[in-house]
Amino acid sequence: MLSTPADVLLVNPACAALSDLDDLRRNHRGPAHVKIVLFGMEEDERSFLEAVRRMAVGYVLKDASAPDVVAAVRAVVRGEAVCPSRLCLWLFSYVAKHVTWMPTMRLHVKLGLTRRERELLPMIARGLTNKEIAAQLNVSEQTVKNHVHRMIRKAGASKRLDIVERSGLPELVV
């Protein structure tokens, strides 16, 4: 565990595997949403997409200079994401191919759902259990149950799939 809190964690893959990012974030005593910048990375689509999935916001290649790494950290502190343009193109391509629906402001207005509740909606539509959703979001199962209960109440629904129906989101999206 880190001895002092930080806003940004700079991680080298030689020291930590991508699968360790979740543990780093969980064990960090700083802000709840600590930002992770990976440096010394390969220009590899699979590693990049895995880093994005694990919520890294910076991805700096191994041939980057020290000033490039510093610039990346500063950009992340300003609320920006950092990655090489070719990898960004891969990300756009991935999203275009695999994401069939994304939460919109319409759901916020229509049902009064919070951002987190809108995030749960496609998972419910895919038929994930509370336990599976909790594992994906790194929260407790009880937290998911609370969100789902509030969503049912806001939608005036009687069961979880009714929320999906009333949102206009098609069930079982991939």
Note the topology.
Elements: E1 8-11, H1 21-27, E2 35-41, H2 45-53, E3 56-61, H3 66-77, H4 85-98, H5 105-111, H6 115-125, H7 130-137, H8 141-155, H9 160-167
Structure commentary:
By secondary structure, this protein is mainly α. The chain has 2 domains: 91 residues, 3-Layer(aba) Sandwich (Rossmann fold); 63 residues, Arc Repressor Mutant, subunit A, CATH 1.10.10.10. Helices cover 52% and strands 10% of the residues. It is built from 9 helices and 3 strands, in the order E-H-E-H-E-H-H-H-H-H-H-H. Strands 1-2-3 form a 3-stranded parallel beta sheet, sandwiched between helices. Helix 6 packs across helix 9, helix 7 packs across helix 8 and helix 8 packs across helix 9. The longest helix has 15 residues.
Number of strands: 3
Number of domains: 2
Please work out how many helical segments DSSP would assign.
9
* CATH third-level topology of the largest domain: Rossmann fold
Strand content: 5-15%
**So what's the CATH class of the largest domain?**
Alpha Beta
Largest beta-sheet details: 3 strands, parallel
Which characteristics define this entry?
174 residues, 2 domains, 9 helices
Please sum up the structure shown.
The protein is mainly α and 174 residues long.
